[in-house]
Structure formats: C-alpha cells, structure tokens
Amino acid sequence: MSKALLDFKNVRKNWIIAISVILLTMIPASLFGQESNGERVTEALVDLGFENVRWVENKEELIYTIENNIYKTQGVGIAKALEVIQGYGIPTNKKCKVIITRLEIPELAITYHPTNNEDTISDNKSKWETSYDLGNSWEIVKKEKRKNSSRGKVDILIYPQLSFKNLIITQIYQVLFTVNPAVEVSFWPGMKFTGQVIIPVYNDGYSIYQDKIHPGFITLSQRFRLPYNIKGKATIGYFNADRYGADLMLFYPFKDERFSLEGRIGSVAVGYWNGFNLHYDTDFSLTWTLGANFYWPQYNTQFSLKGEQYLMGEKGIKFEMVRHFRYASVGFYAMKGQHANSNGGFRFQVLLPPYKYKRFKNKYIPRVNTSYNMGIVYNAGNEQYYYRQYRSEANENIMNNNNFNPYFIKSELLNIY
C-alpha cells in the first residue's frame, strides 16, 4: 500500500472524528445529561428526607413524584423540593411536572412551563402552576421504582387535647387536659393504621370516665383516587364522640377548582371506654353530610354550606367560613337543625413545633414528635345533645383538610420566596 493512500486514510479518519465532535456539541445537552440529572435530583431529594420519590422523562414532560413527611407545612416542604429540582436544571423544551402524594396516593400536580433558559434556573416560584388535575402523568410515573419508601415506617405523634365546658353555676369551667400518644403506620398505598391511648393530665370535674388511661382512636383508613379527580377515604374502627363503626368521605373539585363538592356517610354505634373495658351498643345509626365549597384564593378563605344528619338523627344545615394561614386556621360556623335552637361558634387549629422532623439513619426506628396541630371548637350555644358529630381519624381537622389545596400551596410558594 502506497504512502499516499495511507496519508489519505489518516486524513479521512481525522476529519470523521472532527465532524463527529462538532455534531455532538450541537446536540442539546439535555438529551445526554437529563437522565443523570434525574438521578441526581432524586438522590438529593432522598438525602433531604423526602419519601416515595420517582422520576421519568418522555418527549412531552419530565415528571417527578415526592411525598413530604419532613415539614409539617406542606407549602414549605414542596418549596424546598422545587428548589432542588430547579437547582439541577429542567428542560427548556418540555413541561416539568411534580406530583405530590400522601400515603403514595397522588393529591395534586405542580407544573412548570419554561419559556427561556432563565426560567429553568430562576428561584421564582410564580412560574409553577398548581392543580388537582394530574393529566395522564401519574399513569406514566407510577410504574417507576420508588426511592425511600414510606411503607412500614412508624410515627409516634403526641396529640395534646384541651376541653372545657361551663354547665354548672358553682364552677366557671370544668376543664380536661389530656396527652394522647398515637402510633401511625402505613403498609400499602393509601392505608394508615392509627392506635391511640388517652392519658389524663388534669381533670377538674369534666368527666369521671376521663380519670383513667383508656384507648382513643383505633382506626384503619384507606385513601383512594377515582377518575375525574375524585378523592376519597374509607375508615373503620373506634372514633371519637364515643362512637365506633365505618365512615366514607368523598371530595370532587370542579374544573374551576375554587368550587367543590363533598359528601360523607357513616354508620356508627355507641361505644365508650371505662379504662380498657369497652361498653358498646349494637344499634347502628346513619349520619351523612352533603355540601358545596367555595375557596377565595386572595384571602385563603373557604366558605361551605352543608346539609347534614347528626348523631341524634336530627337533620340540619351548617354554614362555615374558615381562613387558613401558614401556622393556623380560624373558622366560624352557624347551624340550624330539627328539634334544636340555632347554634354557632368558632374553631381554630394551631401548628405545633417543631415544624421539621427527619427520620433516623435507620429509617425504621419510630419517629417521635408532637401532632401536626392542636385545636379547639367553641360551642357558643352550649348545646349538649344536638348537632353532635364525630371525627374518624386523630388528625382530621380544618387545617389538615386544607393541606393539599392547590390555591393554598400556590400562595405558600409565593410567600416563601
């Protein structure tokens, strides 16, 4: 082979290498780096303590799932996660969607629609859109393997409870203060077991049955999501208000998500504890609620009008207005039912510190903390027999029920940064 032919082959080889390098530099970096970015993002989120983390990417969008069990305020936790995701960079030519889950069940989606390179690295959270609507993203990402699973991890939450009433002339208030530790754990998607013990600390004539340590909530609940963004929860077990039985709750947001419908139905019977001896009745009664809600995003205030049937079997109407803040929710209510005078009052919930708690390195050692919040309901009419209702879970209250409201989350993102 002649020297000229060898030189020609070497030149051709060098040109091929040079052209390949030029072509590679012209291809968007996201096509090569995004997969590693996705892995780095999920690892960073897991290092912070977020659970049930996933990611997947296709031609239309980059999708992540996260579950915030670190920060007691969902808005703060979600903002921290978005900061990590933006810090590693997101595509400029497709959507980035973050699906927020609770007990592995999707609650809402937060979507970024970038318009230029600066958008993808900016800390401005106003670009993120919040909605109950997941599109088809959940069906795509739920097949991916979860990192830092929440299943089987135990929380021990201390629920303080203050109760008081003014029924006798010789005493201004009869007061009861209890500390109620509860074990909470989930073993499959949407499921949660709660086992609680009520420990009386101070009982000034409130109730003779409250002088003894006795069980509180003992419940098994199952959350689920249906088509058309319908969310639900079914619960069986021992509730409060001396009731045990079964309860079903459903929530449906309209296309304009400021408006929503909710329904609830329960079949319960009387049961009360004398120490650890349960006295119970086998006659079950039906309770139900059907109502409509309007959420005013500018002031994070929800207005509700509901028709209800209470524990004594009487039917009534209740109007409620609740304003939500980051660390508290305050509400007023008015009611009118059969066989009873009009009644009303106020209620509030206050977030309890510490506001952040991470699991141990051995993630199956139980975490111990205060409950998410503590609240009081004031019955201005001093009604003792009518309008009575129950709660089906220890953490059911006006503040926790609003944790995943997309308008509230959006306002938190804007106020945090």
Topology, element by element:
Blueprint: H1 3-26, H2 30-48, E1 51-57, E2 61-67, H3 74-88, E3 95-102, E4 105-112, H4 117-121, E5 128-131, H5 137-141, E6 155-165, E7 174-185, E8 191-204, E9 214-226, E10 230-238, E11 243-253, E12 259-274, E13 277-280, E14 285-296, E15 301-309, E16 315-324, E17 328-337, E18 343-351, E19 367-370, E20 373-379, H6 406-416
Parallel strand pairs: 2-3, 6-19
Antiparallel strand pairs: 1-2, 3-4, 4-5, 6-7, 7-8, 8-9, 9-10, 10-11, 11-12, 12-13, 12-14, 14-15, 15-16, 16-17, 17-18, 18-20
Helix pairs in contact: 2-3, 3-6
Structure description:
The protein is α+β, with helices and mostly antiparallel strands and 417 residues long. It contains six helices and 20 strands. It has helices at residues 3-26, 30-48, 74-88, 117-121, 137-141, 406-416, and strands at 51-57, 61-67, 95-102, 105-112, 128-131, 155-165, 174-185, 191-204, 214-226, 230-238, 243-253, 259-274, 277-280, 285-296, 301-309, 315-324, 328-337, 343-351, 367-370, 373-379. The protein has a 15-stranded mixed beta sheet that branches. Strands 1-2-3-4-5 form a five-stranded mixed beta sheet. Helix 2 (30-48) packs antiparallel against helix 3 and helix 3 crosses helix 6 (406-416). It is globular.
